[in-house]
Design goal:
The protein is an alpha/beta fold. The protein is 41% helix and 20% strand. The protein is built from 11 helices and 10 strands. It has a 6-stranded mixed sheet. A 4-stranded antiparallel sheet has the order 7-8-6-9. Helix 4 links the parallel strand 3 and strand 4. 51% of the residues are buried.
Length: 380
């Protein structure tokens, strides 16, 4: 089987080359038309048309999200049920500074290529490409998981551009929480003793959080901003609001840190004579727990095509992704494809690379690696 599978992987390389211009056109279109979370109408349409034109049955708006999609190639024969996950939302002002034009198109392209190999070699199973909106804001995959879109999958895969190719991933579990302090207004010069300053509550909360940093486990991240601090300097502020992003390397510890920060808020309210209202914003993103077998497939396929790679460790930058929630539910992986060395994601420079020649190289390579790793799962 090994020699036969290697032959199929060579055919994947040839198919990726044959579709190169077709895939690059879609990626360039998504890059030129950046769309924010839940507004990815053009990106959805471009990817759906690519998949429909190549024989997939496409359903738009799955999982209760209008800009999502599910493209299916069902052989009607026994086999694995696998999916490539597509992201295609952009960042405010920066555009595709996270390379989602590459992510979305590489997943769709891998589906197109692997489908051809499945047909040619009569491989059984079900192949899907799942369009997952709003990764940058809410985490569309979390909503779609809840609605059962990923149910029954044997494997789900995605490749994310970064400064180097990496077969594994580490990510933070993450949540955004808003703290609204309520006080009592008064004239700040004439009758300050009659008031309770909500802004003082916010400031005391920041001080309490800073005092707690000594007790956080390594790599815990807690950072906040004041979004409302008052409207007039000569009035005791009766409403002040801060927003904190809280991250930890494990979801279970994130829950502990959330409780610590909640106590900081309640203590700050108590000592300033105010009250605090706590609101979780959006969804909790869990840490990535890549399936180790899938990691080995990506590593071996990087070696197969001669793609240089490094191993993931804690010295590298760490972010958060809704792929993490998927990896907690089913065998799944987020691997990395190298875009441009020394250039960080979420920057304008990264966006330029994602839309340029570096992006084209990363796209073609990601298509090959995804399709080959999908083939590995089908051949288990």
């Amino acid at each position: 089987m090994s020699a036969e599978k290697n032959q199929m992987k060579q055919e994947i390389q040839a198919a990726a080359a044959a579709h190169k211009q077709e895939f690059e056109k879609v990626s360039a279109y998504i890059f030129a038309n950046p769309e924010l979370a839940f507004t990815e109408v053009k990106g959805q349409q471009a990817l759906c048309e690519l998949l429909e034109n190549n024989g997939f049955a496409v359903t738009r708006g799955v999982g209760g999200i209008s800009t999502s999609f599910e493209a299916v190639y069902d052989t009607g024969k026994p086999g694995k049920n696998i999916a490539f996950m597509a992201e295609y939302d952009a960042l405010p002002e920066i555009g595709h500074g996270c390379g989602h034009n590459i992510i979305g198109t590489s997943s769709a392209g891998a589906g197109v290529v692997l489908k051809e190999i499945m047909q040619k070699h009569d491989l059984g199973g079900v192949l899907k490409v799942i369009g997952t909106p709003a990764e940058e804001r809410v985490g569309g995959k979390i909503l779609m998981l809840r609605e059962g879109v990923f149910k029954g999958l044997d494997a789900a895969m995605i490749m994310h551009p970064t400064d180097a190719s990496i077969p594994d991933d580490i990510s933070f579990a993450s949540v955004n929480i808003e703290y609204v302090f309520h006080g009592k207004p008064a004239h700040s010069a004439a009758f300050p003793w009659r008031g309770a300053n909500a802004l003082s509550g916010v400031i005391q909360m920041f001080n309490a959080v800073d005092a707690m940093r000594l007790h956080f486990k390594d790599y815990t991240r807690v950072h906040g901003i004041i979004t409302e601090g008052g409207t007039a300097h000569n009035t005791i502020t009766d409403r002040a609001v801060c927003l904190f992003n809280i991250r930890a390397l494990e979801f279970s510890y994130l829950e502990e840190v959330i409780k610590m920060i909640e106590n900081c808020a309640k203590g700050a309210a108590m000592c300033t004579g105010t009250t605090v209202e706590i609101n979780q914003k959006d969804e909790i993103t869990k840490d990535v727990r890549n399936d180790k077998k899938l990691v080995s497939y990506f590593r071996n396929n990087m070696e197969f095509i001669g793609e240089p790679y490094i191993e993931r460790d804690l010295s590298q930058g760490i972010g958060s992704t809704d792929v993490g929630n998927v990896t907690h539910e089913i065998p799944a992986i987020q691997a990395y494809i190298g875009l441009k060395e020394g250039v960080a994601t979420h920057t304008k420079e990264f966006a330029v690379a994602a839309g340029g020649e570096e992006g084209k190289r990363a796209l073609t390579t990601a298509v090959q690696l995804l399709a080959m790793s999908g083939l590995d799962v089908l051949c288990e």
